[in-house]
Design a protein that fits this description.
The structure is a homodimer of 391-residue chains. With 391 residues, the first copy, chain A, is of the alpha/beta class. In chain A, 35% of the residues lie in helices and 25% in strands. Chain A has three domains: 114 residues, Rossmann fold, CATH 3.40.50; 152 residues, Dihydrodipicolinate Reductase, domain 2, CATH 3.30.360; 62 residues, Alpha-Beta Plaits (2-Layer Sandwich). In chain A, helix 1 crosses helix 11, helix 4 packs parallel to helix 9 and helix 6 crosses helix 7. Chain A starts with a strand and ends with a strand. Chains A, B: Keywords: Amino-acid biosynthesis, Methionine biosynthesis, NADP, Oxidoreductase, Threonine biosynthesis.
Amino acid sequence: MKIGILGFGTVGSGVYEIISNSGNCLMKNLEISKILIRDKNKITLDNMTIEPNELLCDDNIDVIVEVMGGIHPAYEYIMKALKSGKHVVSANKAVVSKYLEEFTQTAKEHNVGFLYEASVGGGIPWLKSIKQVKRIDEISQVYGIFNGTSNFILYNMFEKGYDFNEILKLAQDKGYAESDPSADIDGIDIQRKLTIISSLAFDTVIKEESIPTFGIRHVTKSDINYFKKQNITLKLVATSVKNNNDYCSCVEPVLFTNNTIEANVSENFNIGSLTGSSIGELKFYGQGAGKLPTGNAIVQDIIDIYTEGYQNYPYYFDKKLSLNQNLIKGKYFIRFSNEQSKEVLKDVANDYFKLDSSHAIITNELTIKESQSLFEKLSKSETNLFYARYN
Amino acid sequence: MKIGILGFGTVGSGVYEIISNSGNCLMKNLEISKILIRDKNKITLDNMTIEPNELLCDDNIDVIVEVMGGIHPAYEYIMKALKSGKHVVSANKAVVSKYLEEFTQTAKEHNVGFLYEASVGGGIPWLKSIKQVKRIDEISQVYGIFNGTSNFILYNMFEKGYDFNEILKLAQDKGYAESDPSADIDGIDIQRKLTIISSLAFDTVIKEESIPTFGIRHVTKSDINYFKKQNITLKLVATSVKNNNDYCSCVEPVLFTNNTIEANVSENFNIGSLTGSSIGELKFYGQGAGKLPTGNAIVQDIIDIYTEGYQNYPYYFDKKLSLNQNLIKGKYFIRFSNEQSKEVLKDVANDYFKLDSSHAIITNELTIKESQSLFEKLSKSETNLFYARYN
């Protein structure tokens, strides 16, 4: 089976390395015939080109692997490939999150596969597990840690006492975080992943806009010290819940007691949990990024195409669900700067205390709807507000 | 597709319930046409029988689900079903562990599937994940917590201060442990599961006899109190390691620091870890037993047969590996009664202390070969010896 790869960064070269070097005999059936790169001065292999149509219009290519990132021209290339009867495997959560339904529909019309395991949770067989569970069960909840960079930052703040900016810089120096880190630390990356996860888990189309998202940019050393004293650990978490025909999703910092599995997911690892009607709770843990783990997820998708195994997990996203932001609720830790904000918080505050030079409260139980409205009010006067929900 | 079920205990009735009640449209293709039970006075459904040949000789039945337990006549029924061209799905770790290679070979000769996901880790998609990882990677290590009863006992000793016999009795009253609990607390159940896991992970045939196995029967409240003070947690763990053409397996109590994932696997949950050459470490967590989770694993196998998806994960167990008991090593906690045993331990003891009325040491790093020879010597004079390896 002939493969064309769009993009040859970390993940693209991981795919190349695995297919070239794995001793497994299945690999003999896979041939990387062309690779699209951006810069003609970086051509190092005979089969590299800077001309996308050399891949997209080559009738001999069966599978296009899209690992370019970004929305355009990734969207156009994927659509062109699918429409010309090529299978597509993508690791690009930005474009998959936006166009999952359209890609899936187009693939179905042209009788080819559109697979994207590597777009969420790197090497963890997470999306396929969701599809597998759905063959029998209704899934009522999915949640987890799906961003390695933010987990690396939080883990090192807890374990080694770094403050946020120190460890962010270290992560950037190590190549774990990008020079513009917003997507990772503000939860945008996770929001994209959660649209993919929950669309799959609930058989529907969930849009990024419906997911309230808050990151860890404003977390401080004093927040962390307070959590440590309470034997709780902070993680940046994606959650989606379904109840009958209602759903609710959010991305926000969550506090776990130290004796939970999630609290002990260290360094840049990821974990995903799901709850199914007969299977109960399952958790899947592993490397959520990196050249070989993510490359591995792509090669697994390619093998599923080669063996036609992907046809055993068909998907249509055809359920209609309504957003109901009362489905997720919890107590919140809120840390704020202006004493006047206490007035806004007076009806929900269960416990108030000073945290170094700031103020903090623990709230009563609030729904996402209630907490969102509260944070909107607070944000008018607070610039470094931080909050986290108790699990 | 027509299904015959051999046995209608907890798991058999779980399969029946899932196929009858799941709203998933795939289930409409599955029909339970006959059920074998033992006692004719317990016939409650029209399609129940006490005559095995009514299932095994029925040409209309496509799949036999074997959930009887025990070695005989389960072995004969499975062989008869396979030889007459029926697919077989089994949850019976005792018979699968002993005859995995023969069943697999016979299934291959008759062009049918032999699947046994439910025999290890209940509802966790663990064996299929191993097979999937093996499509690309070499697996160098598998380990985990695969017995819910012993984990329930240890968890409650740690969390609630029970002593061993108290919590064992409670587990028996709740139906979590059998009236003869040896298989669960002496590691026999896990030994069977580890032969299945490591045979799959390493593509070979690993026999129960090659796996040194020690359980938790002799653990005391003072052992647990000592571990708690050290911030470590005790789990009963199965481990297999492969290095080139050597392997080493063992089942023994293992000590994890409290900030690890394993230390926080609570109640009767299971977890399995594997390390693959490109995927790195993956962990899979969930309910390792119970009517619906185990029933779910069986129905997943049936769907894989229905969709022919099982053919995408073929297996032959055809690698030849040698046992090398130097591959696994660690420091040990050893608690013993007779002061004279100190003489046997003097060359390996790194730290000696009194533990209530007993004696305890922490050893230097020992290989499985060394520790086994030591425990054999000690067992001559010690009747309640307890030991655990530091992870």
